[in-house]
Amino acid sequence: MAKIFVEAYGCSASFADSEMISGLIVNGGHTLVDSSSESDLNIVVTCSVKDATANKMIHRIKSLKKKPLVVAGCLPKTEKDTVERFTENASLLGPNSLGKTLQVIDSTLKGRKTVALEDSDLSKVGLPKVRLNPAVGIVEIASGCLSECTFCQTKLSKGDLTSYRIGDIVRQVETEISEGCKEVWLTSTDNGCYGFDIGTDLPALVDAVSEIPHDFRIRVGMMNPMYMPRIKERLIESFDNDKVYKFLHIPVQSGSDKVLHDMKRGHTSGTYREIVKKAKARFPEFTISTDIIVGFPSETSEDFAETVKLLEETRPDVVNLSRYSARPGTEAAEWEQIDVAEVKRRSKAVFDMINKITLENNQRWIGWEGAVLFNEKTDEGIKGRNFAYKPVFVRDDVEIGQTHAIEIIGASTSSLTGKIVS
Predict the structure, then answer these.
(1) What average pLDDT does the segment 105-111 reach?
(2) What are the pLDDT digits (tens) for 310-361?
(3) Domain 3-116: CATH class, spelled out
(4) What is the pLDDT of residues 193-204, one digit of tens each?
(5) Which range is least confidently modeled, 55-69, 208-222, 355-369, 395-409?
(6) What is the mean pLDDT of residues 9-37?
(7) Which part of the chain is CATH 3.80.30.20?
(8) With 90 as the cut, is the pLDDT of residue 147 above it?
(9) CATH hierarchy code of domain 136-363
(10) Is the pLDDT of residue 157 over 90?
(11) Could you give the CA distance from residue 224 to residue 226 in angstroms, rounded to a whole number?
């Protein structure tokens, strides 16, 4: 039996995969260790969404390959040749191949490289797991998506949509809660199209999970705007339950309908505007998170101005800003690219505007009092979330999983500062 070190990068689904890989390792009789210096074998669960991320993955792979290594996650599925160029002896495990985890580990420990990138029929619901955070249960509700975005590698790694049954997901959530979780994340490649392949949808799932008779919170993960017109009315209604954080992550990517068409996003800027309007009309304090890509190959100065206008109008609370990077295997990678200096200029302009908007949004919370569930320890103190999923830091002595009444006394561009009032 071996000592194995596992680390993960990327989205919440990637971290959920690492938890399940760790669970399978422990069930298989191996031991998890906290650092690569203690291990007999290393596993890195990778992300390949951007150039910068992929470069970080390659750097990490090179540093871990001195010992038997398994490269898991999206990068080996989308860029197998790149991974093998830097570590020809490492075994490869795809994001939908977790059923082969122990087989890959055993052969790698014996000095035999194994490549397991084909999708297995193993559902990710119900697998054993070792949680990264004892207070948070990450539950994958589906794998893959229905989109064909011209800039994105995710479809190449995750494939078409495969939704898991509501009953199976509810049982998994019940397990998370019974094992001490106070917060559950419903995550997938794209929550917006959950269930379309099995005759159900996201509102029905959120309602079913909300009915579980325990005190816990639900974070509904990222959903692309293109599917929102089909579900938005009932989804907003499902958020009426106190267990559901008043939070939506809806990546618009651009304010230009022409660019959105070129991206094959399947929605318009108006789709995004309508969702934001409806959410904030129903819940005045509602957190909107979105993603923006600047410098897409077909983005003109006028298109960029449309993005700036959209952000000024909708004033999202969180913006994940990216400079476009051409990802191998995607359609837009073959197009003529915009000058790097111009992309940097646009990125800086949006970055400065985002900081102004998010600071003003957060300053409105100063003086608010209410319940905060604490779910993470960081260098800044212990962090919790209020009903709108706003990050709140306190310096008080608080344990993970506790809920306290907090008064907000300060704000930054990314978080709130509070103090316990009872």
Answers:
(1) 93
(2) 999 999 999 999 988 877 777 788 888 889 999 999 999 999 999 999 999 9
(3) alpha beta
(4) 999 999 999 999
(5) 55-69
(6) 91
(7) 136-363
(8) no
(9) 3.80.30.20
(10) no
(11) 6
- pTM score, whole prediction: 0.88
Token duo for residue 18: 């690492």
Pairing of strands 381-385, 391-394: antiparallel
Q: What is the CATH code for 369-420?
A: 2.40.50.140
**What are the tokens at 356?**
């102004």
